From TrEMBL:
This is GtrA family protein. It is found in: Membrane. It comes from the Bacteria. Residues 23-141 form the GtrA/DPMS transmembrane domain. The chain crosses the membrane at residues 20-44, 50-67, 88-111, 117-135. The keyword Membrane applies. One of its GO terms (biological process) is polysaccharide biosynthetic process.
Length: 154
């Protein structure tokens, strides 16, 4: 008969699941911000669908940063507010490159998606999510090591 799983491992799994779930909630919030801006400005205001994504990314990334710093990764702060936000935008740029690449491909090749750009926003968001989670968890919001020295940028 196998011994029961230690409670520490269960707590670690539960904490990891909580972080992933909250990151996904933040992603949904970011998607709603992103998709709303794109849909309104492209469909109803006639803006360029490619340039609009640059604005919507900046606003959505700022929204997800606020959510993630408050709820998902709230335990420790490595950087000041502006430094954390700037690093977060830089980190999210990797996911945005994947996101924007797929979005652009879909908008360029499919007239139906050009008319409803929210579909391309959703596809791009899913594609960039993994890159964004990894960079958030292991760079921007990683826990400060008790033995590591603080760099001048921290």
């Amino acid at each position: 008969m196998a011994s029961p799983e230690p409670s520490r491992t269960r707590r670690e799994r539960s904490a990891a699941a909580r972080v992933l779930l909250l990151f996904a909630v933040g992603g949904v919030i970011g998607f709603l911000i992103d998709a709303t801006i794109v849909q309104v400005l492209v469909k109803w205001a006639g803006w360029n669908p490619y340039l609009t994504r640059l604005l919507s990314f900046l606003v959505a990334a700022t929204g997800t940063w606020l959510f993630n710093r408050t709820y998902t990764f709230s335990a420790d702060r490595r950087y000041g507010v502006f430094g954390e936000w700037a690093r977060y935008l830089l980190a999210m740029s990797g996911g945005f490159a994947v996101n924007y690449g797929l979005y652009s491909l879909l908008v360029f090749h499919y007239a139906g998606i050009r008319a409803q750009p929210v579909i391309a926003v959703a596809a791009g968001s899913l594609a960039g999510m993994v890159v964004n989670f990894v960079s958030s968890r292991f760079w921007i919001f990683r826990k400060r090591s008790e033995t590591a020295e603080q760099s001048p940028l921290d």
